[in-house]
Design a protein that fits this description.
The complex is a heterodimer of chains A (110) and B (169). Chain A has a two-stranded antiparallel ribbon with strand order 1-2. Chain A contains 5 helices and 2 strands. Helices cover 69% and strands 11% of the residues of chain A. Chain A is mainly alpha-helical and 110 residues long. Chain A has 2 domains: 76 residues, Winged helix-like DNA-binding domain superfamily/Winged helix DNA-binding domain (Arc Repressor Mutant, subunit A, Orthogonal Bundle), CATH 1.10.10.10; 34 residues. Chain B has 169 residues and is an alpha+beta fold. Chain B has one domain: Alpha-D-Glucose-1,6-Bisphosphate, Chain A, domain 4 (2-Layer Sandwich). Chain B is built from 7 helices and 7 strands, in the order H-E-H-H-E-E-H-E-E-H-E-E-H-H. The longest helix of chain B is centred in the C-terminal third of the chain and has 15 residues. Chain B is globular. Classes of the chains: A mainly alpha (110), B alpha+beta (169).
Chain lengths: 110, 169
């Protein structure tokens, strides 16, 4: 169970940075890019871009794959989907039931 | 080169299960009917062996209820490489939709790696020349009832292996 918490931590931490979200958006727009391509869209050093990509990779949000001499970066949506199922769905349900309760309460009063 | 990378999709999920359990969940129909699209797989696990998927009874009924009759075989292909429980490569063609059935065979690679207390499962789908299928497996058509593609299937596979049930249960 602790392992799961760690996984979520890494994903939330990776997403808590505008540069890294921008990198994910770039890959969403066109998948399978090299470091050079991604770096050219950022205003930072190659080293900085690599650091951000490593965080995304550790969180499982980016998966790399070798193609000849190049290392290509792919967006992996699975961790986001798992967080969605684990967190978002749950609170959506609660909101809906809270609204339903409110409606019952209000209708009882009238 | 650039075209092939743009048509390739890569998905990875970490699962607390043995490599053999993950392998079985991918290659055995008694497992595949319990998650994702619930299709019944039939693999002849050797190079050149046939791969096909038939619809489970609930899936067929649901489809008919929506006025859509399914073909007997909904996916076909050929096994390229089978190295249980580590690597499986096979071709893949979707036959449920005439537009997709007309597209060329695509190629799926499953790689299972054992890590500390868990495994990683990486699915690579090479979709050269198959934009309709690419859109389906990316989950673009989820809101039209076409399911969430590979990401959804792998999430369900993870949930099934780790908890013994899927979201719909």
């Amino acid at each position: 169970m602790l392992g799961c918490v760690d996984d979520d931590d890494r994903v939330f931490k990776a997403l808590a940075d505008s540069t890294r979200r921008f990198l994910l958006d770039l890959l969403f727009g066109r998948d399978g890019r090299t470091l050079t391509e991604l770096e050219s869209e950022l205003e930072m050093t190659r080293f900085g871009a690599m650091k951000h990509l490593r965080v995304l990779e550790a969180a499982g949000l980016v998966v790399t794959r070798r193609s000849g001499r190049e290392k290509l970066h792919f967006l992996n949506p699975v961790p986001i989907l798992l967080i969605h199922d684990r967190w978002i769905d749950k609170y959506k349900e609660r909101q809906v039931s809270a609204l339903a309760e409110l409606k019952t309460l209000l209708e009882e009063k009238t | 080169m650039s075209t092939s990378t743009e048509t390739t999709q890569v998905y990875r999920v970490y699962i607390k299960a043995s490599a053999q359990a993950i392998w079985d969940a991918i290659t055995k129909p008694e497992w595949t009917e319990r998650y994702g699209y619930t299709g019944l797989v039939d693999y002849d696990l050797r190079p050149g062996g046939a791969y096909q998927v038939t619809a489970s009874e609930p899936f067929r009924k649901e489809s008919e209820a929506r006025g859509y009759e399914l073909p007997d075989v909904i996916i076909d292909g050929e096994v390229v490489e089978a190295d249980p429980p580590r690597k499986l490569v096979h071709t893949f063609r979707m036959l449920m939709d005439p537009g997709m059935a007309a597209e060329p065979f695509t190629r799926i690679t499953y790689e299972i790696k054992e890590l500390d207390h868990m495994c990683s499962l990486t699915l690579t789908h090479e979709l050269e020349g198959a934009p309709k299928l690419a859109s389906l497996v990316r989950g673009d058509q989820e809101e039209y009832g076409a399911g969430g593609g590979h990401a959804w299937v792998l999430s369900e596979l993870k949930t099934l292996l780790e908890t013994g049930k899927v979201f719909a249960d």
